[in-house]
Amino acid sequence: MSWTSRALGLAAACFVLACSTQPPSWVAGERFSHPVSVTEAVHLSQAGVDPEVIVTKMNLSGIVYNLTDEQYEKIRGHGVTPRVIDYMRSTYDQAIARWPRLADDEYLACWYLGWDGAWYGGGPQGFHPACREP
């Protein structure tokens, strides 16, 4: 195991300990964490971080993942577990169910392209109000 993998594992463990004193995001009504990128999910998975810890970290960030089936297959091949992938897919499904306009956003005005080539939405402040209109 490389030094960076150990450091990442230690950082994830510290995050879990720190979050144990925070109320869950759905209780507090706001998000507390930085956006978790697809690349970070891959690195956490490869470092052996428990999938539930990764899902909790993602939930706290409030990010919605807008990935293709091919992108999901690729990250699965890089070690991301089905549990984490199911959560990522559910963020999109839940956002579309709540704000159908997001599904019809052919120019991706409500989404942003991450540095890793994945499309994201939401975040700690949620979607822009114009993206939540019917």
Q: What does the model show?
A:
- This protein has helices spanning 3-19, 25-28, 38-46, 51-61, 69-77, 82-98; strands at residues 63-66, 112-113, 119-122.
- The model is unreliable at 12-29 (pLDDT under 50).
- It has a 3-stranded antiparallel sheet.
- It is globular.
- It is built from 6 helices and 3 strands; from the N terminus they run ααααβααββ.
- A hairpin with a 5-residue loop joins strand 2 (112-113) and strand 3 (119-122).
- With 134 residues, it is mostly helical.
- Helix 4 (51-61) packs parallel to helix 6 (82-98).
Helix content: 40-55%
Distance between the termini: 50 Å
Number of helical elements? 6
Query: Strands of the biggest beta sheet: in what spatial order?
Result: 1-3-2
Total beta-strand segments: 3
- CA gyration radius, whole angstroms: 15 Å
Average pLDDT, rounded to a whole number, is 81
Instruction: Report low-confidence residues grouped into runs of 5 or more.
Output: 12-29
Structural class: mainly alpha
SSE order, one letter for each helix or strand: HHHHEHHEE
Quick description:
The chain has 134 residues and is mostly helical.
Strand and helix map with partners:
Layout: H1 3-19, H2 25-28, H3 38-46, H4 51-61, E1 63-66, H5 69-77, H6 82-98, E2 112-113, E3 119-122
Antiparallel strand pairs: 1-3, 2-3
Helix pairs in contact: 4-6
